[in-house]
Amino acid sequence: MQCRLGHPWRPGTVVIEWQQCECATAKQARGGHIQVRCTAPRCMEQWEKPRHDPVSLRRPEHYRNSH
Q: What is the domain range of residue 31?
């Protein structure tokens, strides 16, 4: 396996973490995301499973401040 930029993923070249989240997709998947990040210098490649859904975190319109 490798990131989209072609850096090989071997032991010590990726970080795999679990991140708690309140988005709708995370709630359906035990309350969080598995995140995988490439550790190659200057590489910003990262993916999450399930995908983060920031739209589901927005407050309903009737809760928003009208100021």
A: 1-52
